[in-house]
Predict the structure.
Amino acid sequence: MKIAAIKTTPLLLPFRQPYHWSGRVDRGAAVVLVEVETDAGIIGVGESTAPLAAEGTLSTLAAAAPLFVGEPVHDVDRLITRARFLGGFNWTPRQANLVLAGLEMALWDAIGKAAGQPVYRLLGGRVRDSVDYFGCTQGDSAEELAADAARLAAAGYGVIYLKVGRGEAADLSNTAAVREAIGGRRLRLDANGAWSVVEALHMIRRLAVFEPEWIEQPTPADSIAALRQVHESAAVPIAADQAAFTPADVYEICRQRAADAVVLSPHEAGGLLAFGRAAAVAAAAGVPICLHGQSVSSISDAAQHHLGLCTPNLTEGNQIMHQLLVEDLVSAPDLTPVRGKVWPFDAPGLGIELDRDAVARAADLYQEERRP
């Protein structure tokens, strides 16, 4: 079975409500739908993350396409590795990961459909019966966040997640309100690199009274040394997120003992295979992996779920984000966690059914947003 064509479509996915996090407020996200057509008539589906102006991602995928068309769809590792040597990728390996991840995802979907097997079985089989996901609090004010946190706790989520890095006063009041609302449930705080080392140590001292399970990415993403310095001095566990992109980043974080956990997605790692390699590096160092939630649809969340099922050193409270969308791109399966859990789904490939009408609406929204 060979690759006959690669089709890409930019999409805009609006959020149900403004998404507040360190330094910004997002109201939607752009992604690129990647479809790999094969000479057997099978179409594999994937999704690449993109800036709102997704043309850079589209042009890069178009440049990579000739390296894939006519090649065996099963040669995933060889094809993705060869594409990494496209001119610009030599200088931007992180961008390579974000662009190529959706293409690799579509290859696995096609392979699974051809084999009649879910992707997690192709990656070694599952090591757990379900994957545990977090409850992601939404809102602007402390009152809104607390109300949403109480709803998530009542729905059975064992791990509640809150953005910090929004200013000291807001961080303290928001965290206090959420902690009161959820009682003794596990609470994770994510600063998204908002603080310097000094600011991080100060804020972690102030926030420690609320007993967070960990503080995620307290320092800027470009310095593992800063993350290590905070990790060595803070009394609260530290998780790496934006500092961990490539498997090499994960190795360096583990080598420097810069974090207690690594939050990672196949988009950042550069695909499902690269994610597995990064997770193995972390496992060798005794460091757990948490699935990273990004502004994506259930296409990506389904791919991540397959990884979660077969990653031995996975945490609980993994991140999942499609629930933030006004409209998802997937009609089945339903990836809504039940008491924080999602079980395996055994349809071939990624196991998803695209809602083509929703895709068309998201494509129209993207074109409207880009229109002068």
Remarks:
- The chain has a mean pLDDT of 96.
- The two ends are 42 Å apart (CA to CA).
- DSSP finds 13 helices and 14 strands in the chain.
